[in-house]
Amino acid sequence: MSPEAKSEKEFLAGYKPKDYPSIALTADLVVFAVTGAVLHTALVRRGGHPFKDALALPGGFVGPQESAEQAAHRKLAEETGLDLGQLPVHIEQLATYTEPDRDPRMRVASVAHLALLATDGHTLPEISAGTDASAAAWHPVHELLDSDALAFDHTTILRDGLDRLSGKMEYTTVAARLLPAEFTMTQLRTVYEAVWNVTLPAGNFTRKMMPQLEDTGKKARAAAGAPAALFTATDRHIHPPLAKPRVE
Length: 248
Prior knowledge:
Layout: H1 3-14, E1 24-35, E2 38-46, E3 55-56, E4 59-61, H2 68-80, E5 89-97, E6 108-117, E7 133-140, H3 141-147, H4 154-168, H5 185-196, H6 202-209, E8 213-220, E9 228-233
Parallel strand pairs: 1-6
Antiparallel strand pairs: 1-2, 1-4, 2-3, 2-7, 5-6, 8-9
């Protein structure tokens, strides 16, 4: 054993983690999906203290042998029945929340994740409560943000998730992650309107988005009127960006 390795071994043998304040780690999820031209998020109702009976984002403590992302997948499945491994989903790390008093039980840091579920715009994946959640359901996002009714700092996390998605939609095709692989221009515009909570002129939107899409050559079946063209999204950036309209 080299002197350096021996020195490190001796250091670790005498190291006492309990000499330092302990901090617990949780993983929380902002799960978005669009139906009926409305942006929804999956929430649970807490079955125990603290914040008993309050609405909260799905999530929980990270186990000693798992990553924050693994814990996020596990807790979402346990609390809502949503299995991200079996659904068309895009997931990315959102942010880490470390305010000392964000949890009244102890010092808890949370790694939040943003998950975008693809839907046909008409139905949402079924969810059901499990483990320590007394209920689970989909809720309209913009109504929630007006009420500020979530447990812990989850309203802040939800707002940050919406801001992340809203901002990326200005210059990328991330909005297509909330749709099937093939979609109509109307479906894509509906997602933009649901997330941004605005109404967009159809013609201007189409002209702006066409360079970022690929025409499949196929048509969507229509209950009335002419069939609509089906597109897929590319990874090309929207330049100049499609700016979110300012709401007065």
